[in-house]
Amino acid sequence: MTPSTTPTATYRLQLQPDFPFASAERAVPHLAGLGVSHLHLSPVLEAVPGSTHGYDVTDHRAVRAELGGEEGLRSLAATARAHGLGLVVDLVPNHMAASPRYNHALREVLREGPGSPYARWFDIDWEAGDGRILLPVLPARLPEVRKRMRVADGVLRLDEQEFPLRDGTEGLPLTELLDAQWYRLAWWRLARTELNYRRFFTISDLIGVRVEDPEVFDATHAKIVELVRDGVIEGLRIDHPDGLADPQGYLERLREVTDGRCWTVVEKILTGTEPLPADWPVAGTTGYDALRYVDGVFVDPVGADELRDVYREFVGRASDRGGCWEATARRAAYKVVTHELAAETAALTGIAGRICAADPELRDHAPWALLTAIRELLVRVPVYRTYRTGGEDVLTPEAARGAKAAFAVAEEAAAVDTVRELALGRLGDGPEHRAFRARFAQTSSALRAKSVEDTAFYRYTPLLSANEVGGEPGRPAVTPEEFHAYCARLARDWPATGTVLTTHDTKRSADLRAGIAVLAQCPAVWAELLDEVAGIPAPDPHLAWTAWQTAFGFGTPDAARLGPAVLKSVREAGLHTSWTEPDEGYERAVADFVAAGPGRIPLRSASEAAFALEPHIRAHMLGAALVHLTMPGVPDLYQGTEREYRALVDPDNRQPFAVGPDDDKTAVVRAALRLRRERPEVFAEPGSYAPLTASGPAAAHCLAFARAGEVVTAVTRLPLRLAEAGGWQDTELVLPDGRWADVLDGVREFTGGAATEVKLAELFDERPVALLARLRE
């Protein structure tokens, strides 16, 4: 899908009350000057007051007032258009804020129960428990907070929370009033096991929306569709499509109502070589797959293996503080599926139980057997979820055999076959059958996200730069051949897909990851640095490794910024403390360690060897940036990344946008974006990608490619290893025919053709990257 509004490059802005539409409007001249074609805005619909991200949507009918409302958005669009820019907007179809105070649809459901016209908006199991929706919002058990509750004007209030009352119940004594509602107020800890509505991952504050229902789709998309048809919005980023019951059906409906006018990309996380479903009517993904390939091609595979060995020796092999990636990920999956997603697997068991009870052939499956089968199959899904087709490639017979090993009695293991057939849609097409298939896929995506991204990535940390969404920590390096093959596939099949290096969700910005990735070229230097700071006691060696490596990538000691990121890492890992069961003593020790060590000591300058790594880090930063901006796809720049940008996980990376000083990275970014804008056909043409191979002793250290025979990108790989081997020496690169100009300096020219080879020592004389454009007669 490549509509006429396909961007040449987008620039992501994080809107929030401290950076509303008016602030974005003031930034338009600067951003237009960079060379992007579109502004990429975080969610713009009404959200919980004060929200700094906007994914907690409260009302799809209105543009967020705190940002300037619809008038402000339209004004921004007009100013952007006057500077040659369009708008791409982040759309959140999967969930809303589960706050009855602000969510009008949920408020009416709580007031009127299953008879409300809004009841169809949400996946609520009214048959579970006592026939009411559980609201796990109380800070303590009900008896401890009941005295703080007040009733007035048809509303029940507890501190800042408000809940509507069922008609005719306002005058009842409080205990009877609470029992008479369509909802049950409960201690927040009950969400893990008792929740009876679908939520976003494990976040009970975000309730799932049933956009598969045509009426719900229309009601939740009317305003966005209006803005598209009015030309205010030209592109859409679809947040978390894996949470939807039928992603393909949703996307087909979205294309229909927008008349195919929008460049649309989906936040689809692909695992390994998993392809994006070819029949999805989108331009591609938001680009986490590209992030993995770009990062990986700059990682030394030999050094990464050596670093892993140093890691195992340092942290020990016990449990999840060493060992291998696959085992760590599997243990994390079991933890999440049995603990954090207990309510979700219970809901699946309930649906499966009702199906089996109505079928004489399936009636004898015990609930515990169905639950076990569901869990065992879920942890064996190797990707995020199944879709309309291809489920057999995900829920394989091998996965079923592995799941059956959890049963002591073979006859009881037959529950695995039943659950697999239900998940694949082979045992019927009734409402319950369809519900099971959808919920199994939705739960699978939540499990993958929580167990891999939010648990295992924090437990297995030899090279932290590989621990990003879509990444493979067990195999952080990508060969040049793999990179070229990936780019050729994009150019052929998804030429307008999105690509990214840094997003609002990356755990570490691209430049910070570059600072860490260089360690794979010098594991011995890293081991020496750890020895130098060994005198600063840490709560445990895994924490020490993670915190010091984060600090090394960050570059500058800053306990105020490093502290929250390190604390988040230990809570997500869940080995010594967690979000729901914090160990105050351990967390205090973590804070003390960061303040005394990583937050105080400038590790990069701790030794001559570490200081010598700076030019190699710079080469990685510039190389990754240039590759990202010139490879197939539409590059998205996160706010601030046109210059050196080292940021940690949110909220550190979500600060209000501000224009900063230019640096050498800015020059590379401007040149590449200008070239994309001046020659859009070169980058948009399907199949317009050709690898270029250097020859000579250092050929493996040059990554180069041509776009449509008009633009050549060449960058330095593994520069530290290159220097150790004696530099470029006589290594050469043959350019395509023609005369070529270096657009980074505007002075040098080169001649292409088989008879004329360019010395890489000359090409990279002034900087470790080169961007050449064919001179047109």
How much of the sequence lies in strands comes to: 5-15%
How many alpha or pi helices?
28
Major sheet size, sense and barrel closure: 8 strands, parallel
Q: How would you describe the shape?
A: globular
Give the low-pLDDT segments: none
- State the distance separating the first and last CA atoms: 33 Å
Radius of gyration, in Å, reads: 27 Å
Describe this protein's structure:
With 777 residues, the protein is an alpha/beta fold. The model has no long low-confidence stretch (mean pLDDT 95). Strand 8 (149-152) and strand 9 (155-158) form a beta hairpin.
Q: What are the main properties of this structure?
A:
single chain; 777 residues; alpha/beta; 8-stranded parallel beta sheet; 6-stranded antiparallel beta sheet; 41% helix; globular
Write the layout of secondary structure elements.
Elements: E1 10-13, H1 21-34, E2 38-41, E3 45-47, E4 57-63, H2 69-82, E5 86-91, E6 95-97, H3 104-112, E7 133-138, H4 142-145, E8 149-152, E9 155-158, E10 161-164, H5 174-179, E11 183-187, H6 191-194, E12 199-200, E13 203-208, H7 214-229, E14 235-238, H8 247-257, E15 263-266, E16 284-285, H9 288-297, H10 301-315, H11 325-338, H12 342-357, H13 367-378, H14 397-404, H15 414-423, H16 431-459, H17 480-493, E17 498-499, H18 510-517, H19 523-532, H20 541-554, H21 559-573, H22 584-596, H23 608-611, H24 614-630, E18 634-638, H25 664-678, H26 680-684, E19 690-692, E20 702-707, E21 711-716, H27 719-724, E22 732-734, E23 739-742, E24 749-751, E25 757-759, H28 760-763, E26 769-774
Parallel strand pairs: 1-2, 1-18, 2-5, 5-14, 7-11, 14-15, 15-16, 17-18
Antiparallel strand pairs: 3-4, 6-13, 8-9, 9-10, 12-13, 19-20, 20-21, 21-26, 22-25, 23-24, 23-26
Helix pairs in contact: 1-2, 9-17, 10-19, 11-16, 12-13, 12-16, 13-14, 13-15, 16-21, 18-20, 18-24, 20-21, 21-22, 24-25
